[in-house]
């Protein structure tokens, strides 16, 4: 084990200065995934910079009708927030579908964005893993890969992003606000996470030393019809085999607008944009939803043990769209 120091940042500026000066420093807030990784030496920082006391714990209404969620707001606080439950139920339901109440009480929005894959080979250091050590190989590609990606994978890594919250935020076209030594910037949510390509060790497009400060939810009036459907091996405390976030805006029977995102299928929350384009202007019925599901899964390339995910994802899309077309609610 590598010894590390622990410091508590008193401001965003101080946290960034400390992280910028030390490539091996890691921010810690709720720690619900990071501490697991520290215990098995996946992460061996030189210092932990505790940001948990910083002023990033508010949910604020924006002048355009959207919301800004501080990076240190707990998952429980987001899921319980009255405005989010009313205007973005898709997000509240996604959060409540994940983890346990105890974990949600301490896990933060910023940390949720940064949680790493639950690929078992990644966590077991007896195995090689390109995500831990680029160039070592990917045992999942020829091993047990029933939980792994069917979309957007590479020969370097076939892991999936484990977050439920991320799927909802992708569907809502959220924006991630970050601060670093070069100032502040905004990253569209769909560009925040990366596909593995030749750099499977990088999950996000954050630059070294950058800190997530908040997540913006733009106004999406039809998000009130949003649903989150999570399919998993057991009904609590399990990661998604496939999940779907969907929201429809209808004018009579006709689809005016749609948001669709999938989890459990790729290295990042997956927006099937071709399926979304297909849906616009079509009648909201079973035939349309079936065709959209076929389009969404057309690029799928299942692994040796997860061909079942293709059909499961199609059915999940159909179901989520059907429920959203009826006004949303619990799936
Ligand atoms: Fe490692 Fe990715 Fe392969 Fe899993 S899928 S063993 S995380 S390289």
Automatic annotation (TrEMBL):
Pfam families in the cross-refs: CO_deh_flav_C, FAD_binding_5
Start and end residues of each FAD-binding PCMH-type domain: 1-222
Keyword terms of this UniProt record: Oxidoreductase
SMART domains referenced in this protein's UniProt entry, alphabetically: CO_deh_flav_C
InterPro entries given in the database record: CO_DH_flav_C (IPR005107), CO_DH_flav_C_dom_sf (IPR036683), Diverse_Substr_Oxidored (IPR051312), FAD-bd_PCMH (IPR016166), FAD-bd_PCMH-like_sf (IPR036318), FAD-bd_PCMH_sub1 (IPR016167), FAD-bd_PCMH_sub2 (IPR016169), Mopterin_DH_FAD-bd (IPR002346)
SUPFAM superfamilies (alphabetical): CO dehydrogenase flavoprotein C-terminal domain-like, FAD-binding/transporter-associated domain-like
Presence of keyword Oxidoreductase: yes
PANTHER family cross-referenced by the UniProt entry: OXIDOREDUCTASE (PTHR42659:SF1), XANTHINE DEHYDROGENASE SUBUNIT C-RELATED (PTHR42659)
Protein's recorded name: Xanthine dehydrogenase family protein subunit M
């Amino acid at each position: 084990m590598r010894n590390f120091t622990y410091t508590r940042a008193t401001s965003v500026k101080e946290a960034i200065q400390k992280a910028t000066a030390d490539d091996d420093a890691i921010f810690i807030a709720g720690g619900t995934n990071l501490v697991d990784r520290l215990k098995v030496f996946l992460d061996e920082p030189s210092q932990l910079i505790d940001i948990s006391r910083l002023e990033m714990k508010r949910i604020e209404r924006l002048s355009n009708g959207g919301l800004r969620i501080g990076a240190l707001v707990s998952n429980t606080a987001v899921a319980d927030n009255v405005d989010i439950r009313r205007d973005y139920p898709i997000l509240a339901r996604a959060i409540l579908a994940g983890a346990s109440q105890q974990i949600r009480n301490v896990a933060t929005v910023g940390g949720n964005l940064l949680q790493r894959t639950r690929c078992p080979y990644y966590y077991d250091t007896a195995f090689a893993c390109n995500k831990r050590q680029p160039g070592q190989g990917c045992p999942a590609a020829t091993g047990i890969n029933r939980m792994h990606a069917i979309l957007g994978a590479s020969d370097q890594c076939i892991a999936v992003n484990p977050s439920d919250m991320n799927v909802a935020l992708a569907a809502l076209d959220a924006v991630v606000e970050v601060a670093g030594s070069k100032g502040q910037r905004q990253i569209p949510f769909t560009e925040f996470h990366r596909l593995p390509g030749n750099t499977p060790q990088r999950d996000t497009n954050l630059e070294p030393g950058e800190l997530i400060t908040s997540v913006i939810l733009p106004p999406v009036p039809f998000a009130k019809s949003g649903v989150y459907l999570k399919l998993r091996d057991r009904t609590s405390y399990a990661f998604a085999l496939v999940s779907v976030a969907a929201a429809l805006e209808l004018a009579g029977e006709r689809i005016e607008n749609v948001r669709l995102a999938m989890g459990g299928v790729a290295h990042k929350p997956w927006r099937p944009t071709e399926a979304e384009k297909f849906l616009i202007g079509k009648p909201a019925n079973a035939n349309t939803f079936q065709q959209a599901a076929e389009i969404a899964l057309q690029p799928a390339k299942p692994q040796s043990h997860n061909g079942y995910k293709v059909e499961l994802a199609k059915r999940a899309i159909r179901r989520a769209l059907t429920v959203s077309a009826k006004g949303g609610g619990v799936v």
